[in-house]
Every structure is written in C-alpha cells, then in structure tokens.
C-alpha cells in the first residue's frame, strides 16, 4: 500500500498500533478516538472522490507500466478504480480489471506508447462509520505521447517549414511536431531533421495527408518516428521515402561506422505510390539499433530503386515488420531487404541481430526477385529469425524463407529460429519449395488454404479457412478488428 498515513497517536499508543498493523493497513486512514477503538475521524458523512489534481501517474523506466497514486480519503471504505485506453473515445477499452475495488492508495496498470488513457476513481462507503460513498468518480487523464513542441498548420509545405531546422538548438530528449487532424500538406523538397531526435505525427483517428513531390524525402542522422500520417508518393521521383543523412552526426562514430542507438520507426502510416526505397542508409555505414515498420499499408509503385530496404555497408540490429501490408504494382523489385557487408559484431562482439516478421500481409512483392540478400550475414550464430503468422502471396520467387536465411540451411542450425503459421502461395497454389523437411520452413505449421483475398490489391481481407482460423496476416483486414 502506498501514499497512506495514520492520524497522529499518543506515544503510549505507538506499541499498540504496531501490534495491530494489519488492521491499520485495512483502512489507509485510521486514528485513535480515545475510547479504546480506532477510527478515521470521519463518520456519518458524504464522501468525495480524490481530486484529479492530486492523482499522480509514474511510469516505469521501460514505459510498459504506470503506477497511479492518490491521497487518502478520510473515512472511505476503499476505492473503486478503472483505467481505460481512450484512443477511440467512443469505444473505451478497459486496461486491467474494470471497477476494481482497492483497499489502498495506489494501483499499477500496463501502458503502451502513443496512447490516451482515462483513470476513474470513486471513494466507497464505510458502513461501520455511517459514511456514504462518493456520488461520482473523479476522472483524470494521462497519455504516453512524446511531448509536442509545435503544431504545423494545414496547407504548409513541410520542406519550407523545416528549411532552417539544422541550425536550431538540438533537444537532449525526444520531442514531437504535430500535423493537424485531417490536414493537407505538401513536401516539395528534402526535409532534413539533422541531429534532432523527433517524432513527426498526425492524428490517430483522423490522419492528415502529405503529398510528396519530385525528389523530396525525409533524412535524419538521429532517432526518428513517423506516425499516423497518409503519404501520397505518386508524384515522387526520390530514391527513398526515408534515408539516413549523407553527413552523419560525428558523435555516432564507432570505428568506421555510425551507430544510432535511438529507434527509427514508421507506424500507422498509409504510403501510396512509393517508387524508391522505403528506408535506406544514404550510402553511409549506418548501424541502426532498431528499425520498426508497424501497422502500415505500403503500396510499391514503378520504382527508381529495385530494393525496399537498402543498407549498403551498414546494418539494422533489430529489424521488425509487424501488423502491416505491403504490395507491389508491377514485379520488378529485385530485393526486399539487402545488407552489403554489415553485421552487428562490427559494433560489439556481443550484439545479436534480429529479423522479425509478425502478422503481415505481402502481395506480389519481389515476385521474381529475392526476399533477402545479406553479404556477411550467413552461417552465423548471432542471428535471431522470427517469421510468424504472415501471408505471402506471389512473393520472392517462391523462396521467401530460403532468402530470409541467405540461402544457407546451415543458418537455421546456427541461429535461433521461430517459424509458425505462415502462408506461402505462389501462382495460385501452395509454394511447395517453401515448406517440408527438404526445404526451409520445416515447422509443419504452414497453412494449406488459399488466402483468397477479397479484391487484391485493394482489399486484402482473407477468406481462406486456415487464415481465418489462426487469424494470420495483417490484423487490419481480419473480420472483427
């Protein structure tokens, strides 16, 4: 129990209090009333819930939990509390037990980033002392968004807005710039975030749209997250959507490499008509501690690049694609992801590399190309491979899993491998070259039914019995999501 206290007692009663500590903990507000019994000092009263101003939210270091504390309400028989995810205000989702009764002054709940929460607390009656519970709960708001330092007006050209950004003072912590809900923006030139550790975000429930024109792209030499924005790239001729800067921050230097420890992520974005790389390293030896693509829909158009992810001499230590859909218009991409010589041990001998694909839908991506090509990565025991609950249709020359392992079966013996419930469908039938004891997915868990999308490439809702049973692919398309 936290943040609780006792009313002051005479010294002669201190020993007695210690002897009945269990009783004290049961109330969180007890005092000696002089008649041989203990009391809160409040009786026959209408109670009020704690003030929102007095409720404290303290997240843990990892940002996965928050401890909520409040001051004691004298005479209360406990507290009824609920904690809700309010990202969809019309459909609150309870986190933990709803209307939980707590005999104390704190509770802990799980949290996630970029989430709006609402905490409700009501002081409960104490019939022993005739106290009536609060008529209504107090509501306190809490969120896990990176603090915003500015909102960019709709109609702005982002290249103009950030034109002199490299000369501005760099914050030691991550900060965010926001786009207006439902707004419309253009980007006619490069947006270089330089050494600024940023989040560029729109509105989760009403994403703005950015139209990228000509050779404009995002570049950075620092951590960067792009979230809740729609991007129209049909007028783009750039070689990348996001590239690491060709002039890295000297502070990142690690030998002949540049090691970026702050994360890079693209989350909940809709990107259409992409011609260049989705992410590239700017032809410099960048090593990213993490790159995450999450909850995105990405349309790959006729391209100026034949790769989707390209790191010339660098590496991504933890590379994750999850809950996303990617499809290609045409079939000329040669590689999905390519590293040319990098490996995590170039930074630190103890670093392990993770490549993880979880719950994604891929359609016609690198139809006649290679899913992975990693010079220097093969036949190593520092690799962790995760391939779970994905749908691959007409991808990677019918050899997605093989190329994930760089064409080396020995990689599967040396690395840590998790494969489960994937679909491999190619030219209208099961891709036999992907599965079985003589091939690369030997898990025996692959799904056998045609995913039978409703109307690819516009509607990737699966109709296959196995895919619906195991709820695989991008959850965005699953019934009930």
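-> sequence recovered:
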């Amino acid at each position: 129990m936290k943040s609780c206290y006792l009313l002051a007692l005479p010294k002669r009663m201190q020993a007695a209090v210690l002897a009945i500590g269990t009783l004290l903990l049961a109330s969180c507000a007890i005092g000696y009333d002089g008649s041989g019994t203990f009391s809160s000092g409040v009786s026959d009263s209408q109670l009020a819930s704690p003030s929102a101003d007095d409720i404290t939210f303290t997240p843990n270091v990892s940002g996965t939990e928050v401890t909520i504390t409040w001051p004691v309400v004298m005479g209360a028989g406990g507290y009824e509390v609920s904690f809700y995810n309010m990202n969809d205000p019309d459909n609150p989702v309870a986190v933990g037990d709803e209307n939980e009764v707590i005999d104390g002054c704190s509770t802990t709940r799980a949290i996630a980033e970029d989430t709006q929460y609402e905490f409700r607390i009501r002081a409960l009656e104490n019939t022993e002392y005739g106290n009536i519970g609060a008529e209504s709960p107090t509501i306190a708001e809490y969120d896990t968004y990176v603090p915003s330092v500015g909102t960019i007006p709709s109609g702005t050209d982002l290249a103009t807005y950030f034109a002199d950004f490299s000369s501005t003072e760099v914050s030691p912590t991550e900060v965010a710039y926001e786009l207006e809900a439902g707004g419309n923006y253009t980007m006619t030139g490069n947006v270089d975030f330089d050494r600024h550790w940023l989040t560029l975000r729109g509105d989760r429930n009403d994403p703005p749209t950015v139209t990228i024109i000509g050779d404009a792209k995002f570049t950075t030499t620092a951590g960067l997250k792009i979230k809740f924005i729609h991007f129209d790239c049909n007028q783009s001729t750039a070689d990348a959507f996001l590239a690491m800067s060709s002039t890295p921050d000297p502070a990142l230097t690690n030998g002949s490499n540049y090691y970026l420890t702050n994360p890079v992520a693209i989350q909940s974005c809709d990107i259409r008509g992409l011609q260049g790389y989705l992410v590239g390293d700017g032809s410099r030896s960048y090593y990213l501690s993490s790159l995450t693509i999450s909850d995105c829909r990405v349309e790959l158009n006729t391209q100026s690049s034949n790769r989707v992810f390209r790191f010339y001499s660098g590496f991504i230590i933890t590379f994750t694609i999850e809950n996303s859909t990617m499809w290609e218009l045409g079939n000329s991409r040669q590689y999905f992801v390519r590293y040319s010589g990098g490996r995590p041990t170039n930074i630190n001998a103890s670093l392990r590399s993770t490549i993880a694909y979880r719950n994604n839908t891929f359609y016609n991506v690198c139809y006649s190309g290679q899913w992975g090509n990693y010079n220097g990565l093969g036949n190593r025991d520092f690799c962790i491979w995760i391939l779970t609950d994905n749908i691959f249709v007409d991808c990677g020359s019918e050899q997605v899993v093989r190329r994930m392992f760089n064409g080396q079966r020995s990689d599967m013996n040396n690395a840590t491998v998790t494969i489960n419930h994937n679909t491999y469908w190619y030219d209208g039938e099961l891709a036999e070259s992907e599965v079985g004891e003589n091939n690369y997915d030997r898990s025996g868990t692959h799904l056998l039914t045609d995913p039978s999308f409703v109307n690819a490439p516009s509607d990737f809702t699966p109709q296959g019995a196995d895919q619906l049973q195991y709820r695989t692919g991008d959850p965005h398309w699953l019934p009930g999501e």
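Residues 1-38 have pLDDT under 50 and may be disordered.
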